[in-house]
From TrEMBL:
This is Membrane protein. InterPro entries: AB_hydrolase_fold, Esterase-like, Mycobacterial_A85_antigen. It comes from the Bacteria. It holds the Pfam family Esterase. Keywords: Membrane, Transmembrane, Transmembrane helix. The chain crosses the membrane at residues 12-32, 44-66.
Length: 375
C-alpha cells in the first residue's frame, strides 16, 4: 500500500484509537509505581507525566480525525492533507469552444474599477441566511453600460454555507475577475446563495416539510435580484453552479427548469437529493424521483438545450461512489448513464477527497466552460 493510500486504512484509524486508550493507562501505572524520591525527581516525573498526557491527547485527536476521514474520505492522501497537491492540469479536461466576448474598457472615472460588493435581504429564511451577497464586475459601473443587462451566476454554497461564507469556502470572484480581465468570459455578476434556508434543516433545494427551498430560489430570490440589479432577465443570461449540496442543486435545477437557466456546473455534485434527518424520514419516493437527475437521464427526459458540467474526483466517497452507501452516492452511476450525452460533459479527477482543496482549483476552467454559452 502506498503511503498516500494508507491514510484511508481502517486498521490505521483503529490502531490510533487503541493507542490513545492504552498509552495513558500504561504511563499512569508506571508513574504511580515510581512516585518516590526527592522533590525535584517527583517534579520531573510530574512534568514528564504532563507531557505524556498532552501527547496522548494529541494522539486521541489524530485518532478521531482518522476515524472521521476513514468514514467520509475527505482526504485521500497525506500529501493532500499537508497541502502538497500538484496544480491541476490546464488541458484536456473538458472541451471548450471559445465564443466572442464583450471587451469593455475600464475608464478613469469608473467609481469601482475593481468591482463592487453589494447585496440584498431576502425574506423566507432564518435570519442568518437572509443576506445574499452580490458581486458586480467593474464594467457594470461604466456609464456606457448604464442600460445594459449583464449575465449572472447564481452560486449555491455547500450545506452549511451561508451566502456570506460561500465565496470563502470556494473562492469564485477572484477567478471571475481574472477571466473577465483576460477576455475569456463576458463581464458577469455573482449572487451567493446559502446551502440551506433553515438552521438544522437539510432541504436540498427542494420542497419538503413545509419548506419550499426550490420556490424560494426561483420565485423569490431571482425576481428580487433581477429587480434590484441589471442582471439576468432572460434565460440566456442566467447560470447556476455550486459545490457539494450546491452542486446537486445546480444539477437538478438546470435539468428540471431548463427554461430558467442557460447552463451550469457542479463541483463534487451528486444527482439525487441526499437528505439528513429529520428530512430523510419525510422524503417520499415521489419527491426523490421528481428531483433525481439520474432518473431524468435514465428515462430520457433531459431537454437537448440542458448544459451541465460535472467536476468529480473518482476518489471522492461523497460524490463518486462508496460501497458502504448502498448506491446512495451516485456520481459514478450518473457518469455511466450520462457520459454519452452532449448535455453532460465531465471533468473527472484522479485524486482528492470531498474537500474544497480538491475542487477549488477547477473553478477557473469551469467558469471558462460557461463562457462558451454566454457567461
Amino acid at each position: 500500500m502506498s503511503i498516500d493510500g494508507s491514510i484511508l486504512s481502517p486498521s490505521l484509524a483503529d490502531g490510533m484509537v487503541v493507542l490513545a486508550i492504552l498509552l495513558p493507562l500504561v504511563i499512569g501505572v508506571i508513574c504511580v509505581g515510581r512516585a518516590a524520591g526527592t522533590w525535584w525527581r517527583r517534579a520531573l516525573k510530574g512534568a514528564i507525566g504532563c507531557v505524556v498526557v498532552l501527547a496522548c491527547q494529541g494522539i486521541a485527536l489524530v485518532a478521531v480525525l482518522l476515524q472521521v476521514n476513514q468514514s467520509y474520505g475527505l482526504y485521500t492522501g497525506w500529501s493532500q492533507l499537508l497541502g502538497q497537491q500538484a496544480p491541476p492540469p490546464r488541458q484536456n479536461l473538458v472541451k471548450i469552444r471559445h465564443s466572442p466576448v464583450r471587451r469593455i474598457p475600464i475608464s478613469k472615472d469608473n467609481p469601482h474599477p475593481e468591482g463592487e460588493w453589494s447585496g440584498i435581504e431576502v425574506e423566507g429564511t432564518d435570519a442568518m441566511y437572509s443576506h445574499l451577497p452580490v458581486w458586480l464586475p467593474p464594467q457594470y459601473f461604466e456609464k456606457s453600460q448604464s442600460h445594459v443587462s449583464f449575465p449572472v451566476l447564481y452560486w449555491v454554497g455547500g450545506l452549511n454555507d451561508t451566502g456570506e461564507h460561500a465565496n470563502v469556502t470556494v473562492p469564485i470572484t477572484g477567478p471571475a475577475e481574472k477571466l473577465i480581465e483576460d477576455g475569456q468570459v463576458n463581464p458577469f455578476a455573482v449572487v451567493f446563495l446559502p446551502g440551506r434556508i433553515r438552521e438544522g434543516q437539510d432541504t436540498e433545494c427542494t420542497s419538503i416539510g413545509g419548506m419550499d427551498h426550490q420556490s424560494w430560489i426561483l420565485d423569490t430570490v431571482m425576481p428580487k435580484i433581477e429587480k434590484h440589479f441589471r442582471v439576468g432577465h432572460i434565460r440566456a443570461q442566467r447560470f447556476i453552479a455550486g459545490y457539494s449540496t450546491g452542486g446537486y442543486c445546480a444539477a437538478n435545477l438546470t435539468s428540471k427548469y431548463p427554461d430558467r437557466f442557460n447552463a451550469g456546473f457542479g463541483l463534487a455534485p451528486y444527482f439525487h437529493p441526499l437528505f439528513d434527518p429529520p428530512q430523510s424520514s419525510q422524503a417520499t419516493p415521489l419527491l426523490i424521483s421528481e428531483n433525481s437527475v439520474v432518473n431524468r437521464v435514465r428515462s430520457g427526459h433531459v431537454p437537448r438545450d440542458v448544459r451541465f458540467l460535472s467536476v468529480i474526483s473518482k476518489a471522492d466517497r461523497q460524490a463518486w461512489s462508496d460501497p458502504a452507501s448502498k448506491g446512495e452516492i451516485d456520481g459514478e452511476e450518473f457518469w455511466k448513464k450520462a457520459r454519452s450525452m452532449s448535455q453532460y460533459p465531465f471533468m473527472l479527477l484522479s485524486q482528492g477527497g470531498h474537500t474544497t482543496g480538491t475542487y477549488a482549483p477547477y473553478v477557473p476552467q469551469s467558469l471558462e466552460w460557461l463562457g462558451q454559452y454566454g457567461l
